[in-house]
């Protein structure tokens, strides 16, 4: 299948699946311009990715080099440092005796005896007294009877194994560094598929792991193995397939960036990290960078390099920007080579997928007109999980600074994983909960309510009880809204009273505090904190206390007293709905439409709660100081709770009449609230004495 045919296949799939994708996003309450999108395989995205390559090439930030580099024998492609991970594996530490021309044996310990055909040297630390005499001598390889020189090398760890390293080409990237440093000629014995080649002699054609077993048996027969230790150690594997990597000599494209480490750290300093400690992952990654970014992959489908090579002189020919995107396998350069040749060899490899993904801010920005582009780039926020800081975030920041001289976004919000019983959810592990099933059972608001319980930088365990709690909230806010408007009137128009009752003023100050705290939390991306703050205020302060406190005034108060309470209830519910709207967008919108907007005939004129103004503090009189307010409200609620508890313990109705005794201090503190306290507690009278509840 040609690349063009494959792209058509992708488009065909996209045409079929896109409506379902979009419906999923709508079902969970995402708000987007769903007509504005790109796919990473379309002409638009491939053009931007190829432009990025050409720009870096012209800035001398990309180069092509034949060199030993990391290779996955399973995927049969070069990989980059960010695609590595450590995997604990059981192995064997094999101690092998080598003859030397000093007349004494030297013992090396290795986990990879199968690489012996590629052994080019032995290394010892020049400070190691045990081996100083061997430096400059030669050692003979068992089985292969070939001599290699013994070098003094300060990088050798004297405490590891026997303190002797056998240098094979290539066991790891340290071997590569030593080859360059000591000008040693390498011996390549590994094929792209992980089998050994003809230079391995009788082991040719055998996979690395199988060859290891065979060569150990052969060494035992020669009586050159001193011992074999069973060990468990970390092995570098390809994160996509868990296959141990090999080092192969191949020709690859690289992005040069090791010389920019100080700049990389400065770029990170300019970002606002949420949470702040996640910046350490970026910094540690930069500190640990050892190699330039390998961007070529030995794949057929993907974004192609916009490159050809002159068959006559070998020069690199870049595509003209006007002809992008190009497929060099089927397209031709628009001009001949400087040498005059018109014969070209196409670059067959494709770009690393993260080379394109690192352009996502521009991929999005360039969908809109030029005037808007200036407003939204740099973007405000990059939200992502912590596991891709080292490649998506890092490479995006790098690319943006290379192309545009600035960071691509201002804020970074780093989330954790969704886990099940403490383990990361993964399709491959089978420990997943199907989201559509959750939506069908509980609805999007409950799922979003659960998700909003996560803290940035921390994993969130999936527990159904959290969805049940979400359902209780959805039910409660629906019923509370219905009850509230049943009492204040469905056609109520909020007009702020000239005066306001003390209890209402105190409660509005509590509401203001909840608005301020939630807003501050949102601005810091601490959404779980905002949810907890607002939800707690709704359940406890509004429903359990204030609505009960003012119920008597709503039913039996003067016209003025009713207005105070109605205004306070209206403002409180609307503010809570607005703050909870990002968490539970559907129920809040339903309540807003039914009671506040009412097809344009209601008290609020914004056609949706999601485009209305964010709630602000409600102005109240300065008759009582804020600290005093908090003290009064807290004590008022404590006494009400104590009376309810006493009635419950006595197995009496909450409407049971009582004689309430409170302390002199409480009576003074609550002097302006005694009528409401009396009503909500069904108190026949309130006496000044030690706290006591007496039933009439």
Note the topology.
Elements: H1 3-27, H2 43-58, E1 62-72, E2 77-78, E3 84-100, E4 105-110, E5 119-124, E6 138-140, E7 147-152, E8 164-168, H3 173-182, H4 208-221, E9 225-238, E10 246-255, H5 261-270, E11 272-274, H6 279-288, E12 293-294, E13 296-297, E14 307-310, E15 316-318, E16 344-346, E17 350-351, H7 353-357, H8 360-365, H9 370-376, E18 379-385, H10 389-404, E19 409-415, E20 418-420, E21 423-424, H11 435-442, H12 444-451, E22 460-461, H13 464-488, H14 502-523, H15 527-549, H16 551-556, H17 559-580, H18 585-597, H19 626-649, E23 658-662, H20 664-669, H21 674-680, E24 683-688, E25 692-695
Parallel strand pairs: 5-7, 11-19, 18-19, 20-22, 23-24
Antiparallel strand pairs: 1-2, 1-10, 3-4, 3-6, 3-9, 5-8, 6-7, 10-12, 13-17, 14-15, 14-16, 20-21, 23-25
Tally of individual helices: 21
- Helical fraction equals 40-55%
Let me know the largest β-sheet: 7 strands, mixed
Distance between the termini: 90 Å
Multimerization status: single chain
Tell me the count of domains: 5
The top level CATH class name of the largest domain? Alpha Beta
What is the average of the pLDDT values?
93
Overall 3D shape: elongated
Number of DSSP E strands: 25
CATH superfamily membership of the largest domain, which one? Answer: HUPs
